[in-house]
Task: structure prediction
Amino acid sequence: SVSEVPFNINNYLYVVLVSVRGPLSLQILQDASLTQTLITGDPALGLTPDVAPAFRSKNRLIINLAVEPGTRPSAGELATQCTARIAREFLQAGGEVIGVALGSGDRSALKRFRDECELPQMTIEEHRTSSERFLNTVSGSVGLIGVRLHASVLASCVGVPSILLAYRPKCEDFMASMDLTDFAVPYGSGQSVRQIEERWDQISSQPDLAAAIYQKALFWKKEQHRYYRQLESRLRQQ
Result:
């Protein structure tokens, strides 16, 4: 069902259809007495291709680090050290590691990570202005470890599992919507190293996870289209 929220502008009654990213957002609105709010997933899941990509076709690990209020990732942090250890082992096994910058300050954070963690083979790409280029880079990869929410969202569009270093509730909200609650690792948590290692082991040992993630992303894309049609129909009735 879809929530209907009436409001009045210039004596006209409008009805807005309310949609949210995930179950945590849903609970917040339900607590505010909006009891029939619809979950449609993150809007960027609308970029999910209708034809499934080639899953795990590249021996590639994607890393995204970012400078956000309250996070300030550095090589001294446990989560970053754990990520560096995974990247080092991946490179030693013949894989490729690419750091991807998606926001202001990301490139400098990735360069610092590469230098301080002694990962000279890691290349860095910047895709701040092109989701298409990001999808081309991440598609077919084994996995992604990242800080920015939309690194994980876009990776999910092409079935690449991600470990999201969750610095805000919206990160947990998205992962819950994808049935991947455990893949949102609280950034700075004392348990983060164990959680990252467990999730990486799961990604490495469960190749079928890629297809499941892609199918869930495709499901939300279809739900969004259905929601847009309902919204258009309702607006035409105003």
